[in-house]
Amino acid sequence: MRKSLFHIAILGIFILSTPIVVYSQNHQLLTNSNLSTISTISDPTLIKTQFGLVKGQLDNLNNVLVWTGIPYAKAPSGELRWKKPIDPEPWEGIFDATQASPIAFQLNENNIIGSDNSLNLNIYRPNNNKKNLPVLVYIHGGNNQIGKAEEMTGNGMVTDLDAIFISINYRLGPLGFNPLPALQTGDRLEDSGNYALLDMAKSLDWIKDNITYFGGNPHNITVSGFSAGGRDVMAMLISPIFKDKFQKAISFSGGMTIANKEDSIKVFAKAIAPLAVEDKIKPTEEQAYHWLLTNHPDVKAYLYSLSSERLVSLMNNAGIRMSVFPHLYNDGYVIPKEGFNTHQYHSVPLIMLTGTGEFSLFAKSSAYFSSSFNHGIPSGQTLTAFQFANKYGGKLYDLFNVSDSAQKMAPFYKAKIYGMEIQYGEDQNVVGLPMGLYGAFHGVFLPLMDPYSENYNGLIANAYKTQGAKQLSKIYKKYIHNFIYNGDPNGNDLVYWNNWSITNNNANKGLLYINADREKAIVYMGRQHFSYRDVLDEMDNDQSIPPEIKKTLISEVLNGRWFSHELDLRYHNKSLWLK
Hints:
It is built from 22 helices and 16 strands. The chain has helices at 2-17, 158-161, 173-176, 188-191, 195-210, 228-236, 261-278, 285-292, 297-305, 308-311, 360-365, 380-401, 403-409, 428-431, 435-438, 446-449, 457-460, 467-486, 502-506, 532-541, 547-557, 565-571; strands at 46-48, 53-55, 57-59, 64-71, 94-96, 106-108, 111-113, 120-126, 133-139, 164-168, 216-226, 248-252, 350-355, 417-422, 511-516, 521-526. An 11-stranded mixed β-sheet has the order 3-4-8-10-9-11-12-13-14-15-16, sandwiched between helices. The relative contact order is 0.09.
């Protein structure tokens, strides 16, 4: 922090006596008339970065310093839409980092929100004089189609972690991933089509170059992400462009997903073809489809002429199905052709965690069940069918998020892998309704980490306000604190967390299980006691629902998901890929 305050002392007279040219990205302008809060000697919210001064704010309630919406790259609009991110323009004066950060264009609840001006990040740190703090970077979820950096905030977290927390915004949907040949430029980064991954790499570069000014350690960066963000983190572990950009990694409900680039091109062409017909570029969707598969300059010109709003309206309702919105392409440069069959990993200490009921919210939002929840919790046969989907989808998703990945990586990964299973939510008598219906849902870790998270307010009610849940949150954050400091989650007064290995797993100590009753936390080492085959065999023998309903759930609700490969093979579910 002292380095930044030195800059402030030198610039103090200039700031208060000279007209200011202020850089702003939809943030409030700071002028001479509203600079009275800036001290010429010391203001910990005023920081000199590589590109200019930024002014944040103090969260008095939590005694946390916060900067929001700081640009790490130039807005990818116009001719920069499908290009690799470049440095933001340096600014004179002071950037107002107190306003909500602009988020990426997306279709959210049938409304288009966001802007192209979204390559920015939020920074949170304890309000103290400590330097060289570890840095935890967070990639939000949302299938790489929706979401925002504020999915997790650091206000209620960084003091417990004694660390800096950074969350980023990045390009989403067809603006963040697009494999069409006409967009290729000859630059191997851009030709990958993985523009969102390029954004994430750029943000890590900015953090490495600037975090010292905020009191952070550029050589102790932990990259983390939830859901799509967790899958992005897993992709970073095999991507050559992320070499040496971070020292540790955490995948919250992530898992291994790669899209075949050639198949993905066909999906995108089919999705965009109706727009070309609507715009009278081609008379039929079939003709438009084949035209969009080419690298003709007219295709490129047309794609760039489309508004961001129209593009992000495409390929929605993916519901953890890569076939609907394929992304993370095995282009051979940003992501290896062999994907996760590689033997080459960035072997950094890694935590992978999952809830035990990860599929419940996806089952609820499926076409089969969604209308059943319009008037509250369903009952009778519908509830039994929902519980069936939750049970088996949850077990398959559980395997996919942690054990399956750990087993695949273990022979080639040269650092320790730690696996965690969160069970909190399984006992309705502890968490009540409605959370008890959904179990340890997709995102169950978020309220443990961030007490101000509003993502699941309607779901969790008071479930995280019991003494047991509060103790669980403290224990959970102690593990994370230890991990981001030294790559090992273990410490005093904690159940020892063994790293995952085949030997440890066979000895019933491969995974850390965390749970709580209403009074206390429950933490122990154990192992995964079922395989994909076990789950499918159990599902075959389950007679809780009629055979015709079971068949429908298998072919229309559980099919085609990240975790469904073995299920789709056994039940001969039709491939969802467009050929």
